[in-house]
Amino acid sequence: MSWKRYWNRMRADGGRELYWLLALLVLALSAWIFVEVAGEVMEGGAQAMDRALLLALRSPTDLSDPLGPVWAEELMRDFTALGANGILILTTLLAAGALFLARKPHAAWALIVAVGLGLGASFLLKSAFDRPRPDLVPHGTLVRTRSFPSGHAMGSALTYLTLAALLARQTAELRLKLYFFAGALLLTILVGISRVYLGVHWPTDILAGWTAGVFWAILSWTAVRSLQRRGRVEGEER
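RESULT FIELD:
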């Protein structure tokens, strides 16, 4: 049986229930990981691991020098820019514009609201935990806010995964759905790694940001699916 036939059969034979079950499992898992990481950070239990991982990416003889050639550091700055609020907002607006042009205004507004509220939640979490930035190594890029959770990691996860989920709901092609999510995961991972490499975040900041972003993306995804079932948001094209 081909993947396409299997996919269509699964959807016809109760795939809806599987969707909701997987969504609830991911929500519960991401929430649990975030709470566990946050607890370790607040109690100081993650400090030794954070220090070891951060220092592992630096030259032992010169902590101002990240591992790898000079071009690798410049590449990491490019990657980290993909998680900046300006880039995330611009990407969201461009994607929403495409949905407006496709005459799917409700889907466009769902995307704008989901990402906007998610970025706001990221700012509130950083203010609530108020964790200082790493001071072990020089920062490879300018930072102004606090450290936990990583706004770049959370913002990229919630934006790119929410965008992927919404775009996936506009097509019935399984290959396109997988492509959207694979691309979103790749962007999210690259942004998170770049933040530690540049010395502006502890690894646990990134892990917490990723899990919080995934939680928000799945929450947004389930909300959009529910609205699509009620006919309030445009759904798949068949």
